[in-house]
Amino acid sequence: MLKLENITKYYGDFLAVDNLSFEVKEGEIFGLLGVNGAGKTTTFRMIMGLLEPSSGSISLNGKKIDYSVTDNIGFLTEERSLLTKMTVKEQCLFYGTLKGMDEEQILSRLKELLEKFGISEYYDKKIKELSKGNQQKIQFITAIINSPKLLILDEPFSGLDPFNVELFKQEIVDMAKNGSMIIFSSHRMEHVELFCKKLVVLMNGKSVLDGYLTDIKEKYRKKNILVKGDIDIEKIKNIKGVIEINEKASEYEIKIENEDVKEDVFKVISKGKNITKFEVEEPSLNEIFVAKVGESYEK
Ligand code: ATP
């Protein structure tokens, strides 16, 4: 288990991470989210042992993270960190050796992963000759070459087409099934929502939302009703607990304070004509994220 307890990080007198605590267990995919400058990279660097926290503690399976455990960690950074004049093979030998693997292990794992990602023909190609998406695949491969117990993924899908996003997702889910702890960071909430059962949202270094996604949605309470048909919008607007109504393509999205309001909305809708859809949905993580971060800005 990865455990962060009351982590605080100052750069000079600037507070970048403020009393942050969370845990990631084996097999969990954990979302570490936040707006630009919220403190995510600083947190990743502290987990990797590249930066010392000003106070608090970080442990991996009960041990402080230092060079003796970093062989078990993989880190895919947001920015490209490939040595572009090297070939794919040389690059992976370089990173794999840093992770304590021998040549035979590295090359057999590399061949397996290149095949999985459909790019076996790039084995001896220079990194700079690859497209942006294929460079991202190589960066991902180098991050997982050592089958890390703890994998940190910062915007892993950047530059990938939808087909390759699926390939990456499958690999990430399989790694979690095999017991890896995965920390996933992205500004694309729909990706976070697909994988992460647990998450924390940072704002100015402080957690503004954390816990299990199901609990977060439950606590948020607001719901969205989707309706298709001819309905009396003015009447619905006047119902207590209706927050707003958006017209989307051929349907209406009615935002309500809580589940109870749906009965009153339904009464009006049932008097409408040509109703082909009535659905009560949970709000998306994106909606909750925007609301929470907005609230914190206003404080
Ligand atoms: P992004 O989503 O934009 O990558 P982030 O959440 O990763 O942002 P950090 O890079 O951790 O944010 O930065 C957190 C805050 O700390 C920012 O205000 C940043 O300007 C500041 N900061 C980061 N590194 C340093 C440094 N070396 N010295 C001083 N301040 C820093």
What's the rounded overall pLDDT mean? 91
Q: Strand order, biggest sheet?
A: 6-7-8-3-9-10
The SSE order reads EEEHEEEHHHEHEHEEHEHEEHEH
Q: Which overall shape is indicated by the principal axes computed on the Cα atoms? A: globular
Number of helices: 10
Low-confidence stretches: none
State the major sheet: 6 strands, mixed
Can you list the ligands bound to this structure? adenosine-5'-triphosphate
Whole-angstrom Rg: 23 Å
The number of strands is 14
State the separation between the terminal residues, measured CA to CA: 34 Å
Give helix % range.
25-40%
Q: Structural class from helices and strands?
A: alpha/beta
Beta-strand percent range? 25-35%
Written account of the structure:
A hairpin with a 2-residue loop joins strand 4 and strand 5. The strands form 3 sheets. A 6-stranded mixed sheet has the order 6-7-8-3-9-10, with helices on both faces. The protein has 10 helices and 14 strands. It is α/β, with parallel strands linked by helices and 299 residues long. The chain binds adenosine-5'-triphosphate. Adenosine-5'-triphosphate binds next to strand 2 and helix 1.
What does this entry show, briefly?
With 299 residues, this protein is an alpha/beta fold. The protein is 35% helix and 31% strand.
Question: Features of this protein?
Answer:
10 helices, 299 residues, alpha/beta, 4-stranded antiparallel sheet
Outline the fold blueprint:
Elements: E1 2-11, E2 14-24, E3 29-34, H1 40-47, E4 55-60, E5 63-64, E6 73-76, H2 88-98, H3 103-116, H4 132-144, E7 150-154, H5 162-177, E8 181-185, H6 189-195, E9 198-203, E10 206-212, H7 213-220, E11 223-230, H8 233-237, E12 242-248, E13 251-256, H9 261-269, E14 273-281, H10 285-298
Helix pairs in contact: 2-3, 2-4
